[in-house]
Amino acid sequence: MMARVANAGFTLVELVITITVTSIALVAIIYGWSIAAKHSADVTWQARTAYIGQTYLEEILTKRFDENSTSDGRLPCGVGVLGGDTMPACTSAANFGSDGEARANFDDVDDYHGLTEVPLSLLNNIFTGNNNPYGNYSVAVAIAYDTTQINVASMVKRITVTVTPPGNLNPVVFSAYKGNY
Fold first, then answer.
1. pLDDT tens across 15-72, in order?
2. Cβ(64)–Cβ(73) under 8 Å?
3. pLDDT tens-place string over residues 108-154
4. Are 87 and 69 in contact (CB under 8 A)?
5. Which value, to the nearest 10 degrees, does the dihedral of the CA atoms of residues 7, 13, 17, 20 take?
């Protein structure tokens, strides 16, 4: 008589169930990795967007309030007399924008109104090919008198810098105020 041999191994049903469970687990893991990879660059573009916005605001805020203000800040534009001198009228909002001058010659805040450009385009000379990390960003600047802070139209200008990162992401808006002093 022959001794009975124990059945060793897996049945076909067990193999199919194991493959199915493993496949479902792998799909879940790969999906999780794809979400993480998709958002891994978010911090980079957010940091670059913040850097660009802050850079433009700082540059604009260093300029004088108005074309008609004195460059030394001694006599602001406005209505009335200050220290015995008659203040010149401030530029009207309809005349904001560059007066045909090159960007390098902007000397007051409202010269930047309507400026749209690719930021830091001068870096194209430093980076070879299309390696400029800021080349796909765009910047738009708007300047307006703001009477919500002080109820006199020529006392405060709101500077709005809109930075659009690459990849059709939502634009990020940065704002600051420049006072007439």
1. 899 999 999 999 998 888 888 777 666 778 888 889 899 989 999 999 988 888 877 7
2. yes
3. 899 999 999 888 655 555 666 566 777 788 899 999 988 776 666 66
4. no
5. 130
CB 115 within 8 A of CB 103: yes
- DSSP characters over 16-85: HHHHHHHHHHHHHHHHHHHHHHHTTTHHHHHHHHHHHHHHHHHHHHTSBS-TTS-TTSSS--SSSEETTE
C-alpha distances (whole Å) from 151 to each of 145, 154, 158, 181 are 10, 9, 14, 15
Which residues pair with residue 140 across a beta bridge? 116, 162
Both tokens of 95, joined, read: 């005349």
For residue 155, how many other CB atoms are within 10 A of its CB? 20
